[in-house]
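Please decode residue identities from the backbone states below.
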């Protein structure tokens, strides 16, 4: 189970989930500040105002990463901390925070990997229409250039967008994520303008950064499986695959939207906002592709007699995040589940990796998120044992290693997440971290999974797991 010597062993976080300090240094509200402060939108009305206070504790957190043996750290830039209105010049005190963080990481021998957008759109841009408006993509390119100029000399790994599917379809379709809109046509417009933002942002980064730097995007591509080989179930799987995957990798990797996607959504939108030259702008050569994976998706053709919303693992809502997919039903996959209710299935990660090995031959892959939430609690002695997470990691890393054996060019793995944090609409109730955070004191305690993963990072092999 040895991994290649250059394999990057990392962990990942995002700005709004960990930083706190939402009113410091000129930062203005993002859509997640507004959403989390709206009654009824998050569990217990919890917000990221303090989160785990990484803004003030980043040196402690970097020291902890180094102690664990991590080789890489993927974090996101808070757009409203750097460019509060989403327009105009940067606030240097905001950039200075990330300069200090990068310097701290480099001095600890940890490779920084920057995600430019992890869902925290400046509220002022949402007030102007948000991602359904074309101008937001233009503003993103300007922001990308600002950050690239400031940090491109020291950071080699860059990611434009994290999980644009969530931004478009949970933010503007089902409304369970910020900004909480439930407009199917707007969600498809948002998807296109996120694609355009990726393409324009990639070009902007390349215009100001050294050629050695790697630019990628992180997609939460779904592993979509039909319940049977019945033609109706296969058609349902095709519809969801287009809406989950093809809507992004089609234009990004191939310069086209799938014809089956356009046909399935014609009752929702006419796609007239796709202007001449957009697909060329989106289809920029990438240096790598990031894949985020948690659980597979099981679908069938819907029972025409069924009424009401159909659960799909993305939170309860009377509104579907799947425009044009009224003929699809979602099913719970069998097997053990995490605290999120997501089935544990490492074979899905292997399947995903091999799909993109075929979809984008020659393009290096990184697993930019993978992990599990469990109900972790300290023992009386203060230690946090999480054998379920160790088993989860062992299974999924074994799938990555098998994919490498099968010919996939996977160059790194970023555990989600470095530490417990604000889990979006779930508030602080779901713990994904390898490091336990006491939310009352903000004390950090590495769980047993963090020690196991650190041993894997140092040795390049998977340590044994009891019972595996």
């Amino acid at each position: 189970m040895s991994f290649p010597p250059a394999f990057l062993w990392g962990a990942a976080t995002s700005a709004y989930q960990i930083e706190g300090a939402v009113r410091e240094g000129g930062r203005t509200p993002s859509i997640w500040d507004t959403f989390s402060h709206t009654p009824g939108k998050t569990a217990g009305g919890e917000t990221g105002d303090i989160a785990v206070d990484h803004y003030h504790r980043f040196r402690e957190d970097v020291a902890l990463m180094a102690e664990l043996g991590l080789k890489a750290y993927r974090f996101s830039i808070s757009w409203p901390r750097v460019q509060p209105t989403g327009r105009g010049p940067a606030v240097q005190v905001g950039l200075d925070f990330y300069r200090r963080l990068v310097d701290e990481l480099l001095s600890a021998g940890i490779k920084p990997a920057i995600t430019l957008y992890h869902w925290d759109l400046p509220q002022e841009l949402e007030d102007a229409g948000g991602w359904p408006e074309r101008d937001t993509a233009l503003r993103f390119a300007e922001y990308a250039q600002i950050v690239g100029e400031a940090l491109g000399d020291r950071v080699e790994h860059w990611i434009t967008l994290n999980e644009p599917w969530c931004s478009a379809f949970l933010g503007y379709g089902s409304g369970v994520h910020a900004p909480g809109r439930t407009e199917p046509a707007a969600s498809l417009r948002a998807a296109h303008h996120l694609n355009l933002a990726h393409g324009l942002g990639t070009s902007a980064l390349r215009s100001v950064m050294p050629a050695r730097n790697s630019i990628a995007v992180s997609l939460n591509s779904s592993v979509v499986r039909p319940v049977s080989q019945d033609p109706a179930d296969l058609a349902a799987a095709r519809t969801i695959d287009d809406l989950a995957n093809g809507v992004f990798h089609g234009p990004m990797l191939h310069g086209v939207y799938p014809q089956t996607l356009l046909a399935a959504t014609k009752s929702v939108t006419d796609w007239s906002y796709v202007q001449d030259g957009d697909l060329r702008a989106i289809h920029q050569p990438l240096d790598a592709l990031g894949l985020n994976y948690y659980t597979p998706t099981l679908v069938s053709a819907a029972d025409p007699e069924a009424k009401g919303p159909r659960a799909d693992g993305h939170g309860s809502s009377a509104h579907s995040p799947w425009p044009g997919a009224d003929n699809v039903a979602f099913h719970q996959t069998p097997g053990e589940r995490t605290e999120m209710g997501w089935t544990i299935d490492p074979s899905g990660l292997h399947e995903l990796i091999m799909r993109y090995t075929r979809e984008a031959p020659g393009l290096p892959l990184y697993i930019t998120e993978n992990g599990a939430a469990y109900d972790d609690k300290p023992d009386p002695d203060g230690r946090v044992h999480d054998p379920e997470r160790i088993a989860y990691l062992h299974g999924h890393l074994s799938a990555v290693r098998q994919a490498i054996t099968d010919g996939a060019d996977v160059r790194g793995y970023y555990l989600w997440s470095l530490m417990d944090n604000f889990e979006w609409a779930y508030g602080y109730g779901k713990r994904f971290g390898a490091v336990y955070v006491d939310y009352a004191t903000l004390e950090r305690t590495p769980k047993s999974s963090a020690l196991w993963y650190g041993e894997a990072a140092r040795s390049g092999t998977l340590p044994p797991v009891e019972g595996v």
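Observation: The chain has one domain: 8-459.
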